[in-house]
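Lab manual, section 2.4: Encoding a predicted structure.

Procedure: take the sequence of the chain (227 residues), apply the prediction step described in section 2.3, and record the output as structure tokens. A sample record is shown.
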Amino acid sequence: MFTGIVQELGEVAVIKRHGDAARLTIRGSTQDVQLGESIAVNGVCLTVAEILDGTFTADVMGETLNRSGLGQLTEGAPVNLERSVRLADRLGGHLVQGHVDATAPIVSRKPAGHWDQVRISLPRSISRYVVEKGSIAVDGVSLTVSALSPPGAADVPPGAADAPSPPGAADAPSPAEQWFEVSLIPETLKRTTLGTRKPGDTVNLEVDVIAKHVERLLIERNAKGAR
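Recorded output:
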């Protein structure tokens, strides 16, 4: 379990592919790090398999590579690092499991005073869990949702935004897409990879696990009531 408060910017030192899996060696602080402990890398919970000369190594299975942005990492790329939370620690962000729910591209970003306003595409598969002023982890960074796309955007069928326009409709407006916005303060811009992320870059998203548990309980209750 993590809190979404990035402790360090690490760097990908080596990537070794093994079929559909990979072994990542990350350069970063390894003081007091133990074999078998969990470290979040860009919001993905990985298990430390080896420690050597200021680096740690973790194995990443194909499922994780396919469902997160780790499969797009290259050697030399910066990564957000957070060690697992202890029961005595302060919960500075929110409860983060390190289990990526979806990936999405950054749509736009613009400076706003002393912070940056970043808009990120919101996959339909997780949109129901995202609420304004709620929490979301973006590449492992705990952030507050500052704005959401209008409710009508949720009615667009999957793939509609990518469908070709009919003849003569070149000037027609494109279907509304779902998105959410976050505001990045100077500390976040300086201490995490989000400071250099650009429109078009893909980020890992993890929604609030409590919302998913509540939904599951309601589904079970409704199913029992219908019997």
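Check your result against the sample. Confidence is low (pLDDT under 50) at residues 154-175.
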